[in-house]
Task: structure prediction
Amino acid sequence: MTPMQGRPTEGAGAAGTGGASRGDTVAAVVGQWQAVHPELDTGPMEIIGRVNRCAALLQQAEDAPLRRAGLSRPEFDLLGALRRTGHELTPSELARETFSSGAAVTKRLKQLTERGLVERRGDTRDRRVAHVRLTDAGRDLVDAILPEQLAYESAVLEVLDPPSQGELSALLAELLGRLEGHMGALRA
Amino acid sequence: MTPMQGRPTEGAGAAGTGGASRGDTVAAVVGQWQAVHPELDTGPMEIIGRVNRCAALLQQAEDAPLRRAGLSRPEFDLLGALRRTGHELTPSELARETFSSGAAVTKRLKQLTERGLVERRGDTRDRRVAHVRLTDAGRDLVDAILPEQLAYESAVLEVLDPPSQGELSALLAELLGRLEGHMGALRA
DNA sequence: CGGAAATGATTTACAGGTAAAACACATGCT
DNA sequence: AGCATGTGTTTTACCTGTAAATCATTTCCG
Result:
């Protein structure tokens, strides 16, 4: 879907499906590609492009509540992992939980420790490993931000009626479940 | 959806919707949150979390064909914008088309110019503006990569049957269209 | 026991992005 | 004309992530 990122200046057709709002930017981009390469099947672009664009827009919007608390999203993801699991996690566990590299976790932990949001303690058995846990301040911060976050997300998603939200959620769950299963099997 | 990024080690319930593969990672994370904060409405997380996670997985997978050509995704997006519009674009137009900052475009243009994929020419009227176009090599590269890209995307998406792909595409189009319309109206 | 290999975490060097400032030029107003 | 203001682009300083190398420790076995 990479080649479809973009906001074409002059609309290139793209007849609306339902009839409400006219085409999104992805439809316009796909139209441009179709005009240049009519033989290509642009179907995949319409899905992958929209997923990416939605993710970008939603993240941008979502940043607002977090920034008020002085947290970046990756930082909040890390704190959230500690909060939702309810117990201490090692840096490598945090890396897996947040889908990020160990080096990135190390850096974030340094900052979050300085800010007094997490604490570290060494393992008594294996002195290589560290155990990280939320401080009271960290836990309170997460608990304060999370409801704001969810409320904001809820408001943003209200552009879709509840039944559509349900269908979308289910389709994405199926796609994600299978992607997570099959990933790594493909090597083009 | 921020707080839901993660891959819980121990599954926390999450009954499957249809019945095929058991829950995705998002369902597991949501389950963990529910256990800690049962009063929260985690509905939004299920959508936004999945959108983000799908985007991450799809991008990661998609990188393969591009990297073989020695291009990053943002670089290819820039070349693609030039190819699909069919005419020259100024740096600021490229920034809008690729949803990136002007500074980022400047850097990419420098590299792509050095590699001989794009050319610049100054405007004769307004000497502030530059016009960027693909070189023959740049155009050929895009035309060579695009079909590979689409074929690969198509293969990845085959985890969903065609009707589901259609529904997903339509729902995402509606969500994206409205988000693009309403964005900026919300300030939480 | 003792050295080789593995593992957890951190450090280093670097690539890439952004915001804000700086530049270069054009445009509008008087 | 002449100067303030605006616009297009680039530069600067900085921040964050990554891959690869490093360090410290444990585990595996002969």
Chain B touches chain A through 101 residues (CB under 8 Å). Chain B has two domains: 1-10+23-68, 70-146. Residues 1-10+23-68 of chain B form one domain.
